[in-house]
């Protein structure tokens, strides 16, 4: 009972609380309704916003439209509006899509076609063009006014009135094409044609026409009318391989544009619609008919008078065809070198896109002089000295710029470039690096070495003359090109310093550490050898040889520029001493044929075994030039390095005309010099110094120089010595080859008939060779000097193990020994 009473009290309390809450909420709702009513009254009194006004207007308009009682999707005006808006969106999207495929604004200023390559000489002369390139581009002011008006009358009569696309022209072309049920007329403006030439292909599609129209609008925004017209006249294809009006004037009439008559101008202006069909070379009647139509349009547009038109119409086209100038190629070996160098400086993507203009360092006048010098040598000396190829390269040693390059006899028959691709033994020209290393280690050029028989680690160097000259300083040894002393100098300074210096000076080919390195047994090419000698001319500084100075893209912007900096390869004092020593080679040694009358020359000759390679590398302070003569199949020649020096002089005499004379630096003091290179003397395993020849042989060798005028006695002793030597060689186990026996018979015949004029030339050649490449013009003077010298000239007797035990019977070496590379000069 107590529990029930308590539950009843709690229930009563809860009910009273809920009633109180309900009464409170009712009062709150009443107050909220009153407040909202007051706010609505306030909003009604406030003026409507613009958005609200727009909604009200739209509601009123929709209410007045037909079918207002229908749902929105059933009203026809809804679908019409949706279609129009969708069409506008589609057009905008199409324009956007086209723009994505078009070049950007910076590319619209292109001045050359795609897939072209133009290579120019240093003076701007075009050396070669590839692709659809224009040989001669003209400025607008260089083009006759009537020539410009002829193209405007023929191709775009409203050129100055539209903004790239001529709507009237398009409508006219469409009507004419529909009327004829064929494509007989195009509505493209000059601007559209320029866009197609520069950026599009020639296919006939709607998509191409849309891109063409959009490009024309962009070009009109970017360029002026004059700029557009100038580019068009220089790029338009006009048939027969002619691109641009200048090329067409040459191809059809063999004259420049300013010499064309009005009728000829109109005939060229009539070509763009169908260059092959309207070509005067193909169909003269059609060309004249089309020309007359252009003249009529020019008269109608007021560009010419009726009299001018009648005279031009009555004029008969006098066609004088010529080959397109862009087919002409200058300096083909140099061009092939440039084309191989291009990938080093631009990416493959840029090369594939084309449109490049390559500016080079080639001096075109020097190039022609070099070609003439090479042709003259091959034509004159080549036939009777038995060499069929020659190469020449000239470099500015201060910049490394290649000024002339002749890679062979005839590029049309053989494209092998003997300047850059032929790897040949340099012979004695490599001695320049050996002696330069010795001077850089601190040696004095007057330090002496003995020219005597030498065998080091089984290697036996031999002099070219097969004689020994006793003690001699390094300067005279270089002047006379003594092989044995060059090897001894190399032994004193080491392989590594010599190879490193040669590489620093510009030799790129591999050089192997061997004793024959001093005599040029490692193969190099003419370009690197000539460039390395240029380091002497620049007092030890080397600049990388190159032929490209600038590369321009289609817009004429420079995308690469040469910036080769000189690097120190040899200290200045050593370079000056070496230049002084190399000057003596030209003044009193083997390079006498290279002397110039008005300036000093320094250089070095080189001859390999059996005169297979004939070299001369010479320089003045402003120019270094290298010459090589020989045969591609490596056959021996009958010449000497004096012929290479003569070729060098033939070129340099003309190239230096008008060039200021510069002197070489003075020779520095030789005393107290400190070396800049550390010598690494070669530790030979075995060195053998064979004894000197017997007294009889010595006296016989000395008697050969007693009287230079006693030619009869001297020749008889020489014949006797040669015959004895030849008989000894025939008794060897290995027989002499047929070719070598024939050469010895010829030598005997020369000696026996030295008085005959037909063999006099060969006798002089032999005498030149026996005096270590002395020039033929100085050989007699050299023999007189040796006759008066206190140092006897000892005939060459080859060392064998039995020679030390028996001096009376010294066996001669086999023919294989005589063909060793060590006999190179």
TrEMBL record:
<feature type="transmembrane region" description="Helical">
    <location>
        <begin position="76"/>
        <end position="96"/>
    </location>
</feature>
<dbReference type="GO" id="GO:0009252">
    <property type="term" value="P:peptidoglycan biosynthetic process"/>
</dbReference>
<dbReference type="GO" id="GO:0030288">
    <property type="term" value="C:outer membrane-bounded periplasmic space"/>
</dbReference>
<dbReference type="GO" id="GO:0006508">
    <property type="term" value="P:proteolysis"/>
</dbReference>
<keyword id="KW-0645">Protease</keyword>
<feature type="compositionally biased region" description="Polar residues">
    <location>
        <begin position="694"/>
        <end position="708"/>
    </location>
</feature>
<keyword id="KW-0472">Membrane</keyword>
<dbReference type="InterPro" id="IPR012338">
    <property type="entry name" value="Beta-lactam/transpept-like"/>
</dbReference>
<dbReference type="InterPro" id="IPR023346">
    <property type="entry name" value="Lysozyme-like_dom_sf"/>
</dbReference>
<keyword id="KW-0133">Cell shape</keyword>
<dbReference type="GO" id="GO:0008360">
    <property type="term" value="P:regulation of cell shape"/>
</dbReference>
<feature type="compositionally biased region" description="Basic and acidic residues">
    <location>
        <begin position="815"/>
        <end position="825"/>
    </location>
</feature>
<dbReference type="GO" id="GO:0008658">
    <property type="term" value="F:penicillin binding"/>
</dbReference>
<keyword id="KW-0511">Multifunctional enzyme</keyword>
<feature type="domain" description="Glycosyl transferase family 51">
    <location>
        <begin position="124"/>
        <end position="298"/>
    </location>
</feature>
<feature type="compositionally biased region" description="Low complexity">
    <location>
        <begin position="724"/>
        <end position="735"/>
    </location>
</feature>
<dbReference type="GO" id="GO:0071555">
    <property type="term" value="P:cell wall organization"/>
</dbReference>
<keyword id="KW-0808">Transferase</keyword>
<feature type="region of interest" description="Disordered">
    <location>
        <begin position="659"/>
        <end position="825"/>
    </location>
</feature>
<keyword id="KW-0328">Glycosyltransferase</keyword>
<dbReference type="InterPro" id="IPR001460">
    <property type="entry name" value="PCN-bd_Tpept"/>
</dbReference>
<dbReference type="InterPro" id="IPR036950">
    <property type="entry name" value="PBP_transglycosylase"/>
</dbReference>
<dbReference type="GO" id="GO:0009002">
    <property type="term" value="F:serine-type D-Ala-D-Ala carboxypeptidase activity"/>
</dbReference>
<feature type="compositionally biased region" description="Basic and acidic residues">
    <location>
        <begin position="663"/>
        <end position="674"/>
    </location>
</feature>
<keyword id="KW-0378">Hydrolase</keyword>
<feature type="region of interest" description="Disordered">
    <location>
        <begin position="1"/>
        <end position="48"/>
    </location>
</feature>
<keyword id="KW-0812">Transmembrane</keyword>
<dbReference type="InterPro" id="IPR050396">
    <property type="entry name" value="Glycosyltr_51/Transpeptidase"/>
</dbReference>
<feature type="compositionally biased region" description="Low complexity">
    <location>
        <begin position="766"/>
        <end position="778"/>
    </location>
</feature>
<feature type="domain" description="Penicillin-binding protein transpeptidase">
    <location>
        <begin position="391"/>
        <end position="650"/>
    </location>
</feature>
<dbReference type="Pfam" id="PF00912">
    <property type="entry name" value="Transgly"/>
</dbReference>
<keyword id="KW-1133">Transmembrane helix</keyword>
<dbReference type="InterPro" id="IPR001264">
    <property type="entry name" value="Glyco_trans_51"/>
</dbReference>
<feature type="compositionally biased region" description="Low complexity">
    <location>
        <begin position="800"/>
        <end position="814"/>
    </location>
</feature>
<comment type="pathway">
    <text>Cell wall biogenesis; peptidoglycan biosynthesis.</text>
</comment>
<dbReference type="Pfam" id="PF00905">
    <property type="entry name" value="Transpeptidase"/>
</dbReference>
<feature type="compositionally biased region" description="Basic and acidic residues">
    <location>
        <begin position="31"/>
        <end position="48"/>
    </location>
</feature>
<dbReference type="GO" id="GO:0016020">
    <property type="term" value="C:membrane"/>
</dbReference>
<keyword id="KW-0961">Cell wall biogenesis/degradation</keyword>
<keyword id="KW-0573">Peptidoglycan synthesis</keyword>
<keyword id="KW-0121">Carboxypeptidase</keyword>
<dbReference type="GO" id="GO:0008955">
    <property type="term" value="F:peptidoglycan glycosyltransferase activity"/>
</dbReference>
